[in-house]
Design brief:
This protein is an alpha/beta fold. It folds into 5 domains: 6-233, tt1808, chain A; 243-425, P-loop containing nucleotide triphosphate hydrolases (Rossmann fold, 3-Layer(aba) Sandwich), CATH 3.40.50; 439-651, 3-Layer(aba) Sandwich (Rossmann fold); 665-765 and 774-782, Up-down Bundle (Methane Monooxygenase Hydroxylase, Chain G, domain 1); 792-804 and 835-939, no CATH class. The chain contains 37 helices and 22 strands. A 6-stranded mixed sheet has the order 1-4-5-6-7-8, with helices on both faces. A 6-stranded parallel sheet has the order 13-12-14-15-11-16, with helices on both faces. Strand 9 and strand 10 form a beta hairpin. Helix 12 packs across helix 13 (344-352), helix 13 crosses helix 16 (382-390) and helix 31 (809-821) runs antiparallel to helix 32 (830-840).
């Protein structure tokens, strides 16, 4: 029996959409796309055109619209379609052109087309395209049933590299499907497959089937609402973000309650599920409702405030009240600001002190919506009550990943304070959706018998040595980092000195609140442990800061502790490649709640944790990043198993937790051995791979060995894993041998790639589906095999290690090129490095040897000069080839280097000076921009 083909799937989807009211339109080429866009834009703006006595745009007017739409990045273009465009008509009038009706989202024009061909670096046909008001805003990439969904995602990534331009730069959402599995994601090509999402109902049941997904997600009004209201423009990273279904339903229910009742409520979304984005959209959309005067987002504690401030500023510039001045909050509450972010402490000051609240009498009676971040901290105390008493028309909502129930309450529950739970998205849901990771929890049983003395010197020495000895195993050789949670400041200080005495090879830091104040996290992360004497703690903290300053070239003191904290925060996130990162951070309570870092994968615990404090702390490790990060790892140096089981049960709503805590080591090892037994039945030794003749035989080998790669990647993080373990049925050497064969198939013959072709190739074939997936349809999971960070510094290090007098110099040299070819980010620079080595080494080996011997080689400067020269030659060649001003092309690249965005108007102006018609100029512009992007891709070495 044959599987359903892609063509059948495509036709079925189109019929479904037409049945839902979409207009079927045939647009085979890009010019047809523009013709249709003009017609649909005129239809959508017919009332505006009628006001000036018109029914359509002239060709010149439409050309102005096209020029307006062409400039800018994808992010800037997403803004353009959400704004009105003031078009001055040829007869001296002005019409405000609307590209998207954001407020009455059903009142847009919806069309569906398929197999549109677009000329990029090569011609590509797109499966199904949804057009709104003539703009292609949703693209669906389909693969036949039986193929991995990842293949469709990879196809879109290829399109990003070779073909997306023009109106297709306005795509807001992608949908990928193989019929039985369907996911969507925003037009943000850099996040990766892990950031594609199922659509679900309000109870988190997924709509995987394509027809089911189409009837729900692609329903015209629903899709219009998603694009109009629930795509977020992140100002910080300049990218588009689409809300996930549970975020969508939570915001919808908050808005419904604000519009239709005076009741309060809370949202229970598990830690790590994107609470800040959800609460932002709730605040933003609530502020747009009639009758709402102010929306105040209330945070607690400095470490949450720091992170939330940065995230909110990314969504809404200027919304955050980041000062310590209460009068600044008074000014904002009394002014025009609709959204205000502040701390509960400052808000409490404003409403309880007469010198402040006398200025708030006007806002006191206004309709105020408050959204509380993590609604189980000081919101349960006097501050919360004071705020409720002051505002006469207040409605408030809370967000939490770990609600307070009767089992973990000291006084009140979350429901007693906030009312109904409006929406639930539990940890089991998030793990099933792959929106957060599960946990590998291991319990270290030390050799030292210390009894009840947890501060025993020998015990603490043993733990510190264990952490250092196993750090690389846990963090994949430092690719990730770790936090060590200690019971008290005294314990932290003692551990820090022990680590220091062991001369660690990793970078270790520490942070704690040294003032003797009430810490809101004590209830979360254990009973109040007390603090060391203030003076002593301050001196000890300064000593730690001094080590930190020596390590990173900073100059922090306890007087500017906030700046120190922020720097630690940044280095733990490992986001900035120019900033050296921390490997291990010692904490007491800080960084165990609210801190969100995808690069953190391991938590060491030597403190008592329970219920919400335990789940909050564990959840620092479970943010999704990539295929290699399969779970958050937690190593407990105390017997917390009963506490772990109780906490997971409580916050899974008393449902089974088998998906949350990973299987024990022995079971995973047994699963790996079972895979190896089946594998060796077909491939008894590595030579048997050489005999595989057909592509399908090689595909079967790849699929079988890929399962072993994934399971081995999972098991090697367990503390009990030992590569030399004789009970493992595939030795480390065997694995590496088969790995070599696997890579040979994955990357093909090892040779430098040719120059990127700038000549359009025939379109990708369509409709000629094989019955089984080929090697091109397989995700090789190469990131699981990468142990080195392949970047410029790494390549230069390999070059500097070349031994020109060695008999295998040629093999050493080729190995460098092979390393680059296997890395997606460096592959296109391989030919350039080949030329660099030829010019700087091969052509004068003696000079290279002398410079290497006396330390004057400075390969970095040489490479920088070489790349700059080669880029200049490439730009000069392009200018001559296209008869354009070389200075303009250089300016375009210089502006990109500085702004990290394309200023297309520079190239447009250069092309405009050529004597050519409109259509020819457009063709030249597209071609030149594609070539400039290729130059940037090859010669920019950030």
């Amino acid at each position: 029996m044959t599987t359903q083909s892609e063509l059948v799937l495509e036709n079925g989807l189109i019929n479904t959409l037409v049945g839902m009211g979409y207009e079927r339109v045939v647009l085979k080429e890009e010019e047809n796309l523009y013709t249709n866009f003009k017609r649909q834009l005129e239809k959508h703006n017919q009332k505006r055109l009628a006001q000036i006595g018109r029914t359509e745009f002239t060709d010149k007017e439409f050309e102005r619209i096209r020029i307006h739409l062409e400039g800018g990045t994808r992010f800037e273009k997403a803004k353009k379609i959400r704004d009105l465009f003031p078009l001055d008509t040829e007869d001296g009038q002005r019409v405000w052109v609307e590209f998207l009706n954001k407020h009455k989202w059903c009142q847009n024009e919806f069309q569906v087309a398929n197999q549109i061909t677009v000329e990029g670096r090569r011609a590509c046909r797109y499966d199904v395209t949804i057009l709104i008001n003539g703009l292609p805003l949703v693209q669906l990439e389909l693969k036949k049933r039986g193929l991995e969904l990842r293949v469709a995602y990879d196809q879109i990534q290829k399109y990003h590299k070779i073909s997306y331009n023009g109106l297709f730069d306005y795509i807001q959402l992608f949908v990928i499907s193989n019929g039985v599995n369907t996911r969507y994601f925003a037009n943000n090509p850099n996040l990766g497959y892990k950031f594609t999402f199922n659509w679900t109902d309000a109870d988190n049941t997924p709509y995987n089937d394509l027809n089911q997904f189409a009837n729900n997600f692609l329903e015209k009004c629903g899709l219009g609402k998603m694009i109009s209201k629930y795509i977020v423009l992140n100002e910080s990273d300049k990218v588009l973000m689409a809300l996930r279904p549970y975020q969508y339903y939570a915001v919808e229910r908050i808005l419904d309650r604000v519009e239709n009742s005076t009741k309060n409520g809370y949202v229970w979304h598990t830690t790590g599920a994107g609470k800040t984005l959800t609460s932002f959209k709730a605040a933003q959309l609530a502020s747009e409702l009639d009758g709402v005067d102010k929306v105040v987002f209330v945070v607690d504690r400095r470490d949450l405030d720091t992170q939330t401030q940065a995230e909110y500023e990314a969504f809404e510039k200027g919304a955050v009240d980041g000062t310590d001045n209460t009068f600044e909050l008074i000014r904002r509450l009394g002014g025009d600001s609709k959204i205000i972010i502040t701390t509960i402490q400052k808000l409490n000051n404003a409403v309880t002190r007469d010198r402040y609240n006398k200025h708030l009498q006007k806002v006191r009676d206004q309709k105020v919506v408050m959204i509380f971040d993590e609604c189980h901290r000081s919101q349960f105390g006097d501050s919360h009550r004071n705020i409720k008493r002051f505002f006469n028309n207040l409605q408030f909502f809370g967000f939490t990943g770990t609600p307070i129930f009767a089992e973990n309450a000291h006084e009140h529950t979350t429901a007693e304070i906030f009312g109904d739970c409006l929406h639930r998205y539990l940890i089991k849901d998030a793990i099933a959706d792959e929106n957060v990771l599960g946990f590998l929890v291991e319990y270290y049983k030390g050799k030292n018998e210390s009894g009840d003395d947890l501060m025993n010197d020998v015990r603490m020495q043993e733990i510190a040595k264990f952490i250092l000895a196993n750090f690389n195993k846990s963090t994949y050789d430092g690719e990730y980092n770790a936090v060590f949670a200690t019971q008290s400041v005294a314990a932290l200080l003692k551990y820090y000195q022990i680590f220091k005495s062991l001369n660690p090879s990793i970078r270790i830091g520490a942070v704690f609140t040294y003032a003797a104040n009430s810490n809101q996290d004590d209830e979360l992360t254990g009973t109040n442990q007390g603090f060391a004497n203030d003076a002593v703690a301050a001196d000890e903290l300064q000593s730690i800061m001094n080590d930190y300053n020596d390590m990173f070239g900073t100059s922090f003191t306890t007087e500017n502790f906030g700046l120190y904290y922020d720097d630690v925060n940044k280095r733990m996130k490992k986001k900035n490649p120019e900033m050296a990162s921390l490997d291990l951070l010692l904490v007491v309570n800080m960084f165990l709640t609210g801190f969100d870092a995808k690069k953190l994968n391991t938590l060491y615990v030597d403190k008592n944790l329970e219920y919400h404090g335990l789940v909050q702390a564990f959840s620092r490790t479970n943010r999704v990043l990539n295929e290699k990060k399969r779970f958050g790892k937690v190593v407990c140096f105390r017997d917390l198993k009963n506490n772990v089981d109780a906490a997971i049960k409580l916050f899974s709503n008393n449902q089974p937790n088998e998906f949350i805590i990973r299987e024990p080591f022995d079971k995973v090892k047994s699963e790996l051995n079972e895979l190896v037994v089946k594998f060796k039945e077909k491939y008894p030794d590595v030579q048997s791979v050489d005999g595989l003749q057909s592509e399908y035989e090689r595909r079967d080998f790849v699929l079988a060995f890929r399962d072993i790669i994934k399971k081995r990647s999972e098991i090697q993080v367990y503390e009990d894993f030992d590569a030399e373990d004789q009970t493992l049925l595939m030795s480390d050497q065997e694995f590496m041998d088969f790995r070599s064969k696997y890579l040979d198939i994955a990357v093909g013959p090892i040779k430098p790639p040719p120059e990127p072709s700038l000549v359009a190739e025939p379109p990708v074939s369509y409709g000629e589906n094989e019955e089984s997936p080929t090697l091109e349809d397989i995700d090789f999971c190469l990131e699981l095999l990468r142990s080195d960070v392949i970047n410029v510094a790494y390549i230069l290090e390999l070059i500097s290690d070349l031994d020109i007098n060695s008999e295998d110099y040629a093999q050493q040299r080729q190995s460098i090129l092979d390393t680059m070819i296997k890395d997606a980010g460096m592959r296109n620079k391989t030919k350039l490095v080949d030329e660099f080595m030829r010019e700087n080494i091969d052509n004068d080996k003696e000079a290279f040897a002398r410079a290497k011997a006396d330390g004057t080689i400075d390969l970095e400067s040489r490479l920088s000069a070489f790349v700059t020269r080669k880029r200049g030659e490439a730009v000069q060649g392009l200018a001559e080839e296209e008869a354009l001003d070389e200075g303009a092309l250089q300016q375009f690249l210089t502006e990109y280097d500085y702004l990290k965005r394309e200023k297309l108007e520079i190239v447009q102006e250069a092309v405009r000076k050529k004597k050519a018609g409109i259509v020819e100029r457009r063709s030249i512009l597209d071609r030149v921009v594609r070539k400039l992007r290729t130059i940037m891709d090859i010669y920019n070495w950030d």
